[in-house]
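**Archive record**
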Amino acid sequence: MSTFDLVVQGSRVGAPDLEALRSLSRASAVERGSGGEFRILGADPAARANVAERCATARLDWGFVARGSRLADFGLLALDMDSTLITVECIDEIADFAGRKAEVSAITAAAMRGEIDWAQSLHRRVAALVGLEAGVLDRVYRERLELTAGARELLDAAHRCGTRTLLVSGGFTCFTDLLRDRLGIGEAHANVLVVEDGRLAGRVSGPLVDAAGKARHVARLRRSLGLPKERVLVIGDGANDLAMMEEAGTSIAFHAKPIVRDRATFALSHVGLEGVLGLFPA
C-alpha cells in the first residue's frame, strides 16, 4: 500500500496553515522541499475534502503524492501552450492589432470554459484577423509572448531526466515552432494560419488541432514510445485539454478553468510551472 505525502505550495505558506493541514491529514511531520514546497509526511488522502477547504481559504496549492514519486517516472510530458507554457493567449494578442481584442478574448474565454464549441470558436476568431499584415505575428512573438514562471526550469528538468516533451496547442505553428526550437521541446503541433500576399487570410489549413487532435498526438507519441498511460503527464488549462488529459495517467490543471480543475489529478492555481517540480522532484 502506497504511503502519501501532502505537498503544499504557495507564495506564502504560513506555519499555522501547515500545522492545521498536518492535523487535518493525520500526518506525522512537515519537511521543506528543495524547491520551496512543503511536504507533510504520511498524510491520509481521506482528508482530501478538509484539506481542499483549508487550502482554498489560504490560497495554497496542494496534492497527495505517492512517496518517492519523481519527474523521471514519466516518459512523456505534454503541455498546452497558451496560458500554460506562456502567459498569454496568442490569438487575443494578434486580434489586438486589428482592434478586436475584447471581442476575440470573450470568445476565447467562453471556449476555454467549455461553454461553446471550440472548433467553431477558432474559425470565428481567426476570421476576425483577416487582412492583418503577417508581420504582426513576429511582433506578437517578440513583444507579447512571455514564458510562464518555471517553464524553462520544468522543461530543462524533464530533458535532464530523459522525459520526452511534447507541445500541443490549439494556437498556431508560427509560435509553437519557435518555442520548440528555443526550449528544446521534442515535438510541437498546432494550427497553420494561412497567409496570402503577406496578409492573414482569416482561416487555418491542414488537420485541425482541436481537443481530439491534441489527444491524438499524445496517444500517438505514447504508443510510439511504448509507454503505459501511467507514465504520461499532461498539463493544460482549458476545456480543449480535457481529451488529452484522458490519455495520461496524471494530469495537472494549470491556472485552469473550473471544468478542468474538477477533472485533473492535481491543480496548480497559485504557483508557476515550478510547482510541477514541487509535486514531482527531478
Summary: The domain at 1-68 is CATH 3.30.70.260 (Alpha-Beta Plaits). The chain has a mean pLDDT of 96. The chain has two domains: 1-68, 71-282.
